[in-house]
């Protein structure tokens, strides 16, 4: 096991802050008799891109669901900015600045980009006692998020159905950004995308980082995270087999850790 898995002091961000953005402390999660996570420790530094990789059934989704408030840990705990947190729901994680973009994206194809971004979260204006959706502000804000946070051009009035796979992923990311999160969790963000679309999404993830976000990518594909992540944590059969700087590890080593929990 790599020393970084347990050495939190080594994980202190370069900015001089002593606390990581997220810390997972001794987390265990069981579903009946199935142990999905066992003794998982990790820290995510502020403003880094941290990838969680693992084979099928390794526990990636369970860890993601613990981070975003879908599951509470059976034992163990989370800290955010050094303070203990216990999310009862994704809404509670959202209120603390953690947004998740799920693999299925859950976009409504026959609605336009801005409506998808703000569905359930529309800017409103009041006319006397009545609150109405402020459509002008909805389109303005959608354009601003796409241009300033993603640094892209996507027409907020165009139906989502007319967009490519990469652009659809960007719309889903923009929807997460509408809640102004500090942390964005991305679930397999480029799986099933073409090479060009993958590059578009990866560039956008780097843009998010440049714009101050902390990013956690959950993936079973090394191609998805190589050249993108700053650090990589490998889950194997529910345990964190290693956490490494991405620059210090080869694909062969990561592959071996994913399939056997050990280095070649
Ligand atoms: N809600 C649940 N109820 C029962 N068992 C579950 C539940 N969620 C996950 N598991 C089990 O926990 C283990 C870890 O599953 P998890 O989905 O977290 O793995 P994963 O790494 O995301 O796999 P995949 O890449 O196949 O999605 C598996 O054995 C899975 O069957």
Give me a quick take on this structure.
With 264 residues, the protein is α/β, with parallel strands linked by helices.
Task: Tell me, rounded to a whole number, the average pLDDT.
Answer: 90
Order of helices and strands: EEEHEEHEHEEHHEHEHEEH
Order of strands, main sheet, comes to 6-9-10-3-11-12
CA(first)-CA(last) distance: 13 Å
Describe the global form. globular
> At the first level of CATH, what is the class of the domain at 3-97 and 181-260?
Alpha Beta
Question: Radius of gyration in whole Å, from Cα?
Answer: 19 Å
Q: Tell me the CATH superfamily of the domain at 3-97 and 181-260.
A: P-loop containing nucleotide triphosphate hydrolases
Can you tell me the CATH topology of the domain at 3-97 and 181-260?
Rossmann fold
Total beta strands: 12
Q: Which ligands does the model contain, each kind named once?
A: adenosine-5'-triphosphate
**What's the story with the biggest beta sheet?**
6 strands, mixed
- Total helix count? 8
Which segments are poorly predicted (pLDDT under 50) over 5 or more consecutive residues? 1-14
What portion of the residues fall into strands of 2 or more residues?
25-35%
Proper CATH architecture of the domain at 3-97 and 181-260: 3-Layer(aba) Sandwich
Give the helix level as a range of percent: 25-40%
């Amino acid at each position: 096991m790599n020393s970084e898995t347990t050495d939190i002091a080594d994980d202190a961000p370069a900015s001089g802050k002593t606390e990581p953005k997220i810390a997972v402390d001794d987390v265990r999660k069981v579903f009946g008799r199935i142990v999905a996570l066992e003794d998982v420790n990790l820290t995510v530094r502020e403003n880094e891109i941290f990838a969680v990789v693992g084979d099928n059934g390794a526990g990636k989704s369970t860890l993601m669901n613990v981070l975003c408030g879908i599951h509470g840990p059976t034992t163990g705990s989370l800290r955010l900015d050094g303070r203990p947190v216990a999310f009862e729901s994704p809404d509670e994680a959202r209120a603390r600045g953690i947004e998740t973009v799920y693999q299925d994206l859950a976009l409504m194809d026959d609605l336009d980009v801005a409506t998808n971004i703000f569905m359930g979260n529309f800017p409103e204006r009041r006319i006397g006692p009545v609150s109405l959706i402020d459509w002008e502000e909805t389109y303005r804000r959608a354009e601003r998020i796409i241009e300033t946070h993603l640094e892209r051009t996507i027409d907020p009035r165009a139906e989502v159905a007319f967009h490519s796979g990469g652009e659809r992923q960007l719309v889903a990311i923009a929807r997460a950004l509408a809640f102004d999160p500090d942390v964005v969790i991305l679930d397999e963000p480029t799986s099933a995308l073409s090479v060009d679309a993958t590059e578009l999404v990866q560039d956008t993830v780097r843009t998010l980082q440049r714009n101050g976000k902390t990013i956690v990518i959950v993936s079973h594909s090394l191609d998805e995270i190589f050249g993108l992540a700053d650090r990589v944590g490998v889950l194997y059969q529910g345990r964190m087999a290693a956490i490494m700087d991405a620059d210090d590890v080869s694909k062969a080593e990561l592959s071996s850790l994913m399939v056997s929990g050990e280095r070649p």
